[in-house]
Amino acid sequence: MRVPRKSEPEYYTDQVLPILLRRRVLQLTKFDYRLSSNLDDELQKLRCRVNYHALKFTKSINELGQKLVMRMRQMTERFVAVHLRFEPDMLAFSGCYYGGGDKERYELAEIRKRWATLPDLSPDGERKRGKCPLTPHEVGLMLRALGFANDTYLYVASGEIYGGEETLRPLRELFPNFYTKEMLANEELKPLLPFSSRLAAVDYIVSDESDVFVTNNNGNMAKILAGRRRYMGHKRTIRPNAKRLSALFMARDQMDWDTFAKKVKSCQRGFMGEPEDMRLGRGDNEDDEVFPD
User: Fold this and answer.
1) What start-end ranges are recorded for coiled-coil regions in this protein (predicted)?
2) Structural domain span for residue 17
3) What was the pLDDT predicted at 278?
4) What is the pLDDT of residue 281?
5) In this predicted structure, what is the pLDDT of residue 284?
6) What is the average per-residue pLDDT within 241-251?
7) Is this prediction's pTM over 0.85?
8) DSSP of the chain, one letter per residue?
9) How far out from the chain centre does Cα 154 lie?
């Protein structure tokens, strides 16, 4: 059954429920999750219980994820999971420029050509609006400025990184105790290699178990994990205030480290995953109006 866009709660009661009761099972297509904005507190709590308790991984994926958590714990008492969304197609969609010169502009433009309906975006404008995911180097600088020492253990959850090892090198130099699922699992990961969603599930499990979860973007996985970590018992989730940080990163060479660190801490107030940090997403379009926490 296809539900009209932005249907009121009464529509589900009057039109959907009778069919569900008669047929016993019902698939809703084009389901509008923004209905959540109009629900009262008790129904919101029920929605959280359904969402976070319903997600179950297969035994093999769950066991592998827990093995990687155990291997991280064998090396350190506490570890930070960093979710890096920095894939080539993701950057092309973002319309952002990351300083790679003509080579970067050409490569990302070629990817964008595959989707002729994508609008033209201003790279500088997108960055100023906070729409560009942080680079691995920027994530590292943010963490160091926030007080994470270079002996902090990082688990880096990611897919294919644009620029590969060269892009990751600055983050590795800032945090030498740098691990990925590929580094921890070796042969055990081979059966999952053809399936990106299964690889993401392993990253999800390890990130969920981390002591601190950090994201370079505000995408779906980051939002789901932030919400789950709050719902299941508060664990810190750091989301970058990209709109304010972008100007700071561009001016990094114009200030000393102590000044930079002080400004990063100021930018990140309210984005550090404190228990009281509860707010509706305030995006530039209505699709951002979800509950990230």
Assistant:
1) none
2) 9-54
3) 54
4) 45
5) 39
6) 90
7) no
8) -BPPTT--HHHIIIIIHHHHHHHS--PPBS--GGGGGG--HHHHHHHHHHHHHH----HHHHHHHHHHHHHHHHH-S--EEEEE---HHHHHHHT---S-HHHHHHHHHHHHHT-TTPPP--HHHHHHTT-SPPPHHHHHHHHHHTT--TT--EEEEESPPTTHHHHHHHHHHH-SSEE-HHHHHGGGGGGGTT-HHHHHHHHHHHHHHSSEEEESS--HHHHHHHHHHHHTS--EEE---HHHHHHHHHTGGGS-HHHHHHHHHHHTTT-S--TT-------SSGGG-S---
9) 16
| Distance from the Cα of residue 76 to its chain's centroid | 24
Pair 201, 176 in one domain:
yes
Q: Give the C-alpha separation, 244 to 258, whole Å.
A: 18
Q: Can you state the angle between helices 59-75 and 196-209, rounded to 10 degrees?
A: 40
pLDDT at 31 over 80: no
151 with 166, same domain: the answer is yes
> Are 136 and 170 in contact, with CB atoms under 8 Å apart?
yes
Q: What is the pLDDT of residue 118?
A: 52
Distance in angstroms (rounded) separating the CA atoms of residues 235 and 210 = 8
Q: How many residues does the chain have?
A: 293
pLDDT one-digit tens code per residue, 185-232:
988 999 999 999 999 999 999 999 999 999 998 788 888 898 889 888
* Rounded Cα gap, residues 8 and 13, in angstroms: 9
Question: Of 18 and 89, which is predicted with more confidence?
Answer: 18
Mean pLDDT of 30-49: 71
Q: Which two tokens stand for residue 37?
A: 């904005």
Tokens 């319309």 identify what position?
95
Percent pLDDT > 90 in the chain is 48
pLDDT averaged over the chain?
Answer: 85
Confirm whether 284 is domain-assigned: yes
Amino acid, res. 279: R
- Whichever domain contains 80, its CATH number is 3.40.50
